[in-house]
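FOLDING PROBLEM:
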Amino acid sequence: MYTFLAFIAIFGGVVFIHELGHFLAARSVGVRVDKFYVGMDLFGLGYVVYKGKETEYGIGLFPFGGYCKIAGMVDESLDPTVTGSDDEFNTKNTFEKLWILSAGVIMNFLLAITLFFTVFIIYGESTLAPIVYDIKKDGPADTTGLEPNSLITKINEQNINSWSDISSSLLNINENEKISIQYEFNNKSKIVQLIPERKFIDEENTYRFLIGIERAPNDIIELNPGKYIVFKKIYFLEALKMSVLAPLNIIIMQIVGLSQLISGNVGLDSLGGPIKITQMAGQAAQFGLSYFLQFMAMISTILGFMNILPIPGLDGGHALITIIEGLARREIPFKVKMIIQQIAIFLILGLTVFVLGNDIKNLF
């Protein structure tokens, strides 16, 4: 139940913000919104809270985000409600239509930036703690008394706050130079001395110094982030910069993943769906509020990116049709739009069933 509620909070919240963007943009250019629901009122299963002059506000039985029915637009309901009045989507110019269609994606990106900024300001930047996971046999640290689960605090009087600080502290030492390592183990502070090993890393004689310790592997870190992840304090401007870069990095990863999927380098069985997202949402909630908010920001970014793709049935697909109509200076026939939308719904449902199958297979 806890995991399911976390999924509803994350996915439902992200989709609701997306639909709210469409609603506000439509109203800003005088387009009528027939329905605005918190949750989906699939098959008419919803409760009408208030029926205004233009918009019906309600709560859907299915708690997955929201639903915004824009008058005069062919969407997943396949009910365009075209009456010819000037407050319908199809009567607006190209730029007004694109504003309405892009507003959901814009809201998703703004939500992601806001959530990342909140985490960076309150908690700081997450980084890998300088905790020794294992000692390399016959390495410099092997016979010093340094043990797994030791927390490195200083190297040569330089404070160590993250795993990357360890590498930084070894950049400017000389060959055969003895260094001092201060660490904590079982709540006791200890100091050892050793000579780092020089290791060549390429054919151009580039080298680095190693002390023979290993960090935790990624799967261990994911299972226990509270132990291996720490937060480093950052300030306003840096937090603002990072909160913008974080969604951009997620988008770049999505583009790379999509290109690998298209090229066949990554199999379709790698696609995850709602069950996988539910599991990850539950884990994020258990790890703490900072992880929960960052996971929500990631889902919001991915939803925004996926919706902007020029695929029929998605916002990007609607935008592509709008751009074609604007360049041609005439509308695509209504029947053609309906056929495109029907095909899109069929493909989206098929993809949904496929990723659900992947999720169920991966469970076992």
